[in-house]
Every structure is written in C-alpha cells, then in structure tokens.
Amino acid sequence: MKKYLVCLPAIALSFGASAATNVTIYGDDSYPPYSYSESGRITGIYTVILERIFSKMPAYNVTIKEIPWKRGLSEIENSKIFALYPPYKRIEQRPYMEYEM
C-alpha cells in the first residue's frame, strides 16, 4: 500500500509537467491589413503568421486578444501583459520593451 502512495504523487507530477503553458499575446486592433478586429476577433497578416507559428509549438497554448495600441503600451509598461504586436521598434521612447527574439 505504501508503494502505491509514493507513486501517486509522482504520477500526478508527470501529468502537470506535460501540460501546455498558457500564454496570452495582445495585438493592436486598428492596423489593417496587418492586425485589426473583424466580427469581435483579431485577424490580419501579423495575426495569421503568429497563429501558424504557435500551431507548431505544442508546449504552448497561445491566445491572441485584441487591444487598442495606447492601452497595450500602458499595460506592457506596467508589466500587466506579456507581449504586444506589431513591434514598432522605438528603443528611446519605449526602453521597457524587449525587441529581441
């Protein structure tokens, strides 16, 4: 009986290790044709490219949500969101953003 009790936590931990990591990425919803809102969903060239890339990364469960650009900048500056696209590279204006991949 004790052997089974020892194995149970190990089995439970192995299931947790294989679960996908949830990631939410936000996109500017007013930059057609690159990223924009259509029928309450973000779409566009950048969004389609990101969806294809993330579909090949099974370790991550990525959700893409729309956000107005200024709000997105504020949220990322205050560390409330993880990622924002499109990445307009302005290092001097936005030193809090990381542009490297």
UniProtKB/TrEMBL annotation:
Residues 1-19 form the signal peptide. It comes from the Bacteria. Gene3D superfamilies: Periplasmic binding protein-like II (3.40.190.10). It comes from Vibrio anguillarum. This is ABC transporter substrate-binding protein. Keywords: Signal.
